[in-house]
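Retro notes, item 3 of 5
We never archived the inputs for the 1-deoxynojirimycin complex last cycle. Fixing that now. Sequence and ligand:
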Amino acid sequence: MFTNPRWLEDAVFYEIYPQSFYDTNGDGIGDLPGVIQKLDYIKSLGVNAIWLNPCFESPFQDAGYDVSDFRKVAARYGSNDDLKELFDRAHAMGMKVILDLVAGHTSVEHPWFQESMQAEKNKYSNYYIWTDNWTEGDDKYKFINGYSPRNGNFMINFFYCQPALNYGFRDPDPEKPWQLPCDHPDVIAVREEMRDIMRFWLDMGADGFRVDMASSLVRGDNKAQGIKEIWEDYRSWMDENYPEAVLVSEWSHPADAVNVGFHIDFMVHFNLPGYSSLLRCEKYRVPNSPFPAGNSFFDREGKGDAKLFADELLGQLEAIKGRGYVSVPTGNHDIGRIRQGRDLDELKVIYAFLLTLPGVPFIYYGDEIGMDYIEGLQSKEGGYNRTGARTPMQWDNSANAGFSSAAASELYLPVDASPDRTTVAAQEQPEDSLLNTVRKMIAIRRTNPALASDGDFEVLFAETGKYPFVYARSLAGKKFVIAVNPSGNIVSEDISCSGSALTEVLCSGCAVEAVGDVFRLNMQAVSYGIYSIE
Ligand code: NOJ
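Structure as it came back at the time:
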């Protein structure tokens, strides 16, 4: 049984897409000195951890998820010394920094792959998955042919330029000798390379990793035994040598991910329909998105389904009890912005919810001020429909929204051109701005353990087609009740839960009265209430 570092008990993460955060050298692209300069701002949110998207050497055919040197910060972001300085400064301010570990593939430009694609056998020939002949393949996997002098096709993980590293086949097909078993020495060598990369950054001061496509390393692994062995092994090694470091998976099924050793897994769109039903259906979809049609719960129309999500969350929590955490993020660099199609008041209701859920919240940069998804942008670095959620952070209303001093035409991506775009500067003062509301909610969460990662979660009201959604959080004798009504309708609901009084902690448009032995919640359209209960 693994144990978790204490700092996860009240952790709140902030995801930074480095190319779009803050540019200090005027080349139009964000950089690590930019993140360092903005640490005071990040700290002011109340978060205690940062997840930095890939910042390593890369040809950037997938925005850095195509790494060509795992141990070197890309020149456009600065240097390894800058990253070390970021670790040191963040630590001095009480914040952790985790990196993005692209464990499953490299860029075709990575020196391992450059060797692997040679016709002559060499140390790296088996670092990737190659068929024995250029006419061969396997319908279950994606292969690229015709790329190199080597007589074979290589398997990819995502884009054509991202060859899959070879973690072996759990049950290799005897007819296909190129499928190596998981204990083949060359496969073990790949695993050790990845461990060495983790060691390199952990020794420098990194506090862990968000692991890209964490579930998909081993092939033919129907019972997920191969993947279990890998992550349990890495986790045991980390617990022994870096007990404060954490592993966060891109898996989207916490019940699986946490049970193989991850500290945190996201509940997002793939695998789990409850997430989409809550936040991302229908009009919140970016073009060609994988989200299903239907009605989101967080929508003024009021036709969503909180029960689908509640049941799913309860199931995941039960499956990982005491072992690790679920995260329902505000968004990330792969999906549309939570702001899309919503106003800032609606976002406050969403954050009252996301910031009082069990597990560990992640806030995608700019979501705290309600940055919007920008429609119609040309794809940048393999972003396609994700590009609109990756635009520059909006700091103020100076040129380029204060992101960069470069000419607008030189920016990594254009800034939101809308005259009413939100900015940090405009939201700093007003007490009830979205930014200050998010700060308040994070502070409430982090000063009340019952509302943070480990507090119990009990559903008090979640019915298909009905509003509000009401739940309780409790720990060590302290209890809170949270109610959210994102719909455009006034709603009222009687809630029975033990306690004699509900005391307002943070509310907007929500009132409560005791009626007999129940509490009656009277909720305005688009409202929320966070109450402590005695
Ligand atoms: C998931 C990452 O979040 C995404 O941005 C990337 O394109 C793929 N994995 C491939 O690495």
